[in-house]
Structures are given as structure tokens and as C-alpha cells.
Amino acid sequence: MDNTTYRDAIAELETILRALETDTVDVDELTARVQRSAQLIRLCKQKLRTAEDAIDRVFENLDQDEEELPTPPEEAQPLFAPPTPKRSSRSPRDTSGGLLF
């Protein structure tokens, strides 16, 4: 099994591509480089599929967790409702008509 990381595979592919673009690869090496490129591309595709499957499983588990939560009754108050301001029973004016301070 190839222990090459995705990042290493991409870097190697870029190196091979630069060599092919600059014609520094002789004909004898060309076949080997193209075969290695194909191996690296397959490896990258497999790693991407594996990562995608793992991410899908995480989201499926999150969806299942949400389905298992009890649904609150419609009349339930939110957990973080802002406090209701208290109203004073006293009037801001006294009985003589002046303001209280």
C-alpha cells in the first residue's frame, strides 16, 4: 500500500508536469513518468473519495442526532429569552403633580 499523502502526490505530479513541459524528460523516462502520474492521480482520487465519504458520514450522524432530540411543545419558551422589564406600580409623578427624583 502506498503511504504517499495527498499533498505529496500533488507535489510530485506538479514536478512531473513541469519536467514534461520543459522537455527535460528523455524518451526513455517518459513512459515511467506517465505511469507514475497515473498512479498518483488514482491515489488522489481515492483519497478524495475517502474524505468525502467520511464527511458524509459525519453529516449523516449529525442529522440522526437531531432527529433523536425531543421536539419542544409549541408553547415552550425559548431557553435564552431576554428578561421582561418590570413595571413599577408607582407613578413617576407624586400626587401633587411634581416629578419624583
Please, could you describe this protein's structure?
With about 100 residues, the protein is mainly alpha-helical. It has a domain at about 5-70. About 55% of the residues lie in helices and about 0% in strands.
Give a topology summary.
Blueprint: H1 6-21, H2 27-68
Q: What share of residues are in beta strands? A: under 5%
Largest sheet: none
Order of helices and strands: HH
The average pLDDT is 80
Question: How would the global form be characterised?
Answer: elongated
Contiguous uncertain segments of 5+ residues = none
What are the main properties of this structure?
101 residues, mainly alpha, 57% helix, elongated
Brief account:
The model has no long low-confidence stretch (mean pLDDT 80). The protein has helices spanning 6-21, 27-68. By secondary structure, the chain is mostly helical.
